[in-house]
Write a structure and sequence with these properties.
Blueprint: H1 5-9, H2 15-39, H3 47-79, H4 81-90, H5 94-106, H6 119-157, H7 161-182, H8 186-208, H9 211-232
C-alpha cells in the first residue's frame, strides 16, 4: 500500500529537523535586540526609548502576525504542522510559500492535497519552498548593495516603475498557478472565483480600514476553503 504523504507531513519525528532552524531564527532575533540596545546611545536613544520602541514594535507586529496565523491554519491542514511552522518562521510570507509548494506539486501534474499528491510530490514542494528561501539570501548577498543605485536610476525616469515591474511579475506567477489549479475540478474553480471576489471586496474595505489588509489573504483563504468544502465536500 502506498504511503499517504500526510503520514510523513504529520510525523512527530519531522519536528527533529524543523525545530533547530526555528531556534536559530529565535536566537538571531534575541541577538539583534541585544545589539540594538547596545548601539542605541550612538544615535541618542535612552534605555526608556528602547523599551518604548520595543513595546510599540510588538503591538504593531500583532496585525501582520495574526494575518500569517490565519494562513498557517490552512497550510497546516495540507502540508502538516512541522513544515508549516518552519517555513513561516523563516520567511513569513504565507502566499509565496503556498505558491512555491504549488509549483512543486505542479511538477508532478497534481495539486496540493489531491489524491495523487504523493510523498515524492510533497518532498518536492518542501524543496521548492526551501529554494525559494535561498533566493532571498543569495539576492541579499549579491545584489542588495547595488539595488540603491538601480533604484535611483529608475526613479529618475519614473518613481512607480520598480513597484509596477515587481507587482506585474507576481501577478503573472499567481495567475498561472491559479489557472493550473482551477483546471483540475469544479471545486477548485469555485474556490478560485470566491477567493478572488473576497480579495477584491476586502481590498476595497482595506482602503478605509487599513488593518483589514493584513488579514485579507487569510480571511479569503479560510472562507473559500470552508465554503468549498461545505458545497462540494462529501
Amino acid at each position: 500500500m502506498d504511503m499517504n504523504y500526510l503520514e510523513i507531513a504529520r510525523d512527530p519525528q519531522l519536528w527533529l529537523v524543523c525545530i533547530p532552524p526555528i531556534l536559530i531564527v529565535l536566537t538571531q532575533a534575541i541577538l539583534f535586540i541585544r545589539h540594538s540596545v547596545k548601539a542605541a546611545p550612538i544615535v541618542g536613544l535612552t534605555a526608556a526609548d528602547c523599551k518604548k520602541s520595543f513595546k510599540i514594535g510588538c503591538v504593531s507586529a500583532l496585525g501582520p502576525s495574526l494575518g500569517v496565523v490565519t494562513v498557517l491554519l490552512g497550510m497546516m491542514a495540507v502540508l502538516g504542522t512541522p513544515i508549516s511552522w518552519l517555513r513561516l518562521s523563516i520567511v513569513g510570507n504565507a502566499p509565496q510559500e503556498m505558491m512555491m509548494a504549488g509549483i512543486g506539486a505542479d511538477l508532478f501534474d497534481t495539486t496540493i492535497g489531491a489524491a495523487d499528491y504523493t510523498p515524492e510530490a510533497f518532498a518536492t514542494s518542501v524543496w521548492m519552498m526551501t529554494f525559494h528561501g535561498c533566493n532571498f539570501m543569495i539576492a541579499v548577498i549579491l545584489v542588495l548593495h547595488k539595488m540603491e543605485t538601480f533604484k535611483t536610476k529608475l526613479e529618475t525616469k519614473d518613481s512607480m516603475l520598480l513597484p509596477i515591474i515587481g507587482s506585474g511579475a507576481l501577478i503573472g506567477v499567481i495567475t498561472m498557478l491559479s489557472i493550473n489549479q482551477a483546471k483540475s475540478s469544479n471545486a477548485n474553480i469555485f474556490a478560485l472565483i470566491l477567493s478572488s471576489i473576497l480579495m477584491i471586496i476586502l481590498g476595497q474595505i482595506g482602503k478605509k480600514h487599513t488593518k483589514i489588509r493584513e488579514y485579507s489573504v487569510g480571511i479569503s483563504m479560510l472562507i473559500s476553503m470552508f465554503a468549498t468544502q461545505f458545497i462540494f465536500g462529501s
